[in-house]
Amino acid sequence: MTGKVYLIGAGCGSYDLITLRGLRLLEKCSCVIYDALIDERLLAYAPENAELICVGKRSGHHSASQEDINALLIEKALGGATVARLKGGDPFVFGRGGEEITELQKHGIAYTVVPGITSSVAAAELAGIPVTYRRVSRSFHVITGHTADGSNDIEKYARLGGTLVFLMGLSHAKDIASGLLGGGMGELTPAAIVSNGGTPRQSAVRTTLGELAETAADCEAPAVIVVGETAAFDFSPTFKLPLSGCSVSVTGTKKFTCKLAALLEAEGADVYPYAHVKISPRGHIPPPSGYSCIVLTSVNGAELFIEHLRRERIDIRTLAHLRFAAVGSATAAALENAGIYADIVPEVFTVAELGKTIAANIRNDEKVLILRAENGSPELTDILSRNGVSFDDVKIYDTVAESKAMPESVDTDYIIFGSSFGVRSFFESSALSPDTTVACIGTKTAETAEKYTNNRILTAPVHTAQGVVTAIKEDILK
Q1: pLDDT (tens digit per residue) in 188-219
Q2: Cα-to-chain-centroid distance, residue 184
Q3: Which of 6, 61, 270, 309 is 20 to 30 A from 155, comparing alpha carbons?
Q4: How many helices (H) and strands (E) does the chain have?
Q5: 96 — phi, psi (to 5°)?
Q6: Rounded Cα gap, residues 361 and 349, in angstroms
């Protein structure tokens, strides 16, 4: 059965500039063919089993020809795949989307196009430059910088009026400037160069047409060149969230990284989630009869227990004789989603404090069922044993490291770890910049981090996702 192709504009720069429609289609694909200039955080929204293929297309580093890309689209679609062709900016603004569609039409392959936010408008806008302004510029013209390559046509654009926006033109800045000057534009005409538009590395330099070539020599590609009176405006944002300009890497399970990413992005941080920890269920959960208390040491354990109740069709009313102990507020909240309210939650959210709190609330004739990970800390059972508490320690899941989900190195301002396992698996496969602060949820996690790095370590006083976000905010304000 023949598949289909979604040509999706990924937008300009950061991943959150994609449209909702584009994101929803990306979540349905089985194959992603993407350009080098997209924000790779978008790939996390593809299904876990989707095939990911980078086709390059970065200036000066063409890893795949357009003909090769066309052939790849046809091969995957004819093989039955639902293909997301993820393109930087907009597919039809120098994105060669039309060429790809022409090839799809030749082979009778179904397709749809999702517009994207083009850098021809967005890069300038995010730098505070409007491409139109009443009584100053009534039009704007988008021109490929390659026009200046061995061509004298650039002079004609000087007579268009309005704002001129050149894409992919940084290496041709000298030809662009000389052509526009030769066409009659003045040397003092305002100009600007916006590099890495829409990303945390965005920078904008304002200059004049006469000095454009000299200015371009110090700018970084990819860049957009803006020429015209509106380039003199500066409407840069004046409102900033507490973590604006702060970059944070988040490690852990997909659910954990998504939760933290949402909290951090709401505060203005630029977040890089790395879901390098997978939860692998294992073993049998014993019947609750014979126990007086069920102990859960993580959100993962609580969710697996709830899934077990639903799968086995166990009515929570049959658990009325049980008390539940949860290591912290997040684990307790996971139980509450199923209508189960934790009876025992320590004031300090650590396994050690959980053990002490259980020992203070359980009689010697009672028995406790602990449901947790295979690599759970022995500290809990040591404390219970010393206090004469009878228990069964059942391992209901493994935590598994996914090295392919890890970057070779991280150089963000902060990196967050939520578990000792996460720390160990990260440092076994990745490097960390000495300037990155390690933020840990929990003292045990911080102690593990100290064994692997000499970087500065920040431990959240409150051992929750919100707690570590608050700790980073307070750290920045110091």
Answers
A1: 999 999 999 998 889 999 999 999 999 999 99
A2: 46
A3: 61
A4: 14, 22
A5: 60, 25
A6: 17
How far apart are alpha carbons 70 and 65 in whole angstroms?
Answer: 9
Q: Based on the residue annotation, tell me whether 28 is a catalytic residue of this protein.
A: no
39, 57, 90, 444: which one is catalytic?
A: 57
Residue 92 CB-density burial (10 A; 0-12 exposed, 13-18 middle, 19+ buried)? middle
Helix (H) or strand (E) holding 424: helix 420-429
Number of CB atoms found within 10 A of residue 275's CB = 19
Closest CA to 173 of 114, 221, 135: 221
Tokens of 151: 């061509």
Dist CA 477 CA 218 (whole Å): 32
Residue 20 carries which side chain, given as an amino acid letter? L
Helix (H) or strand (E) segment spanning residue 371: strand 367-373
- CB neighbours of residue 67 within 10 Å: 10
250 — phi, psi (to 5°)? Answer: -125, 130
- Structure tokens belonging to residue 63: 């890893």
Residue 89 reports pLDDT greater than 50: yes
Element (H, E) at 176: helix 173-182
**Active-site residue 406, yes or no?**
no
Phi, psi (5° rounding) for residue 432?
A: -125, 130
pLDDT at 290: 86
Catalytic one among 35, 175, 270, 413? Answer: 35
**C-beta separation of 347 from 271 below 8 A:** no
Q: Choosing from 168, 175, 259, 413, which is the catalytic residue?
A: 168
pLDDT one-digit tens code per residue, 94-145: 989 999 999 999 999 999 999 999 999 999 999 999 999 999 999 999 999 8
Q: What is the pTM of this model?
A: 0.77
Q: Other C-beta atoms within 10 Å of 150: how many?
A: 8
Closest among 421, 410, 409, 415 to 472, alpha carbons compared: 415
What DSSP letter does each residue of 238-307 carry, written as one string? ----TTTT-EEEEES-HHHHHHHHHHHHHTT-EEEEE--EEEEE-S-PPPSTT-SEEEE-SHHHHHHHHH
Residue 15 near residue 33, CB atoms below 8 Å: no
According to DSSP, residue 8 is labeled E
Cβ atoms within 10 Å, residue 258:
16
Q: Where are the alpha helices (DSSP H) in 267-410?
A: 299-311, 329-336, 351-361, 379-386
Residue 106 known to be catalytic: no
C-alpha span between 422 and 406 (Å, rounded): 11
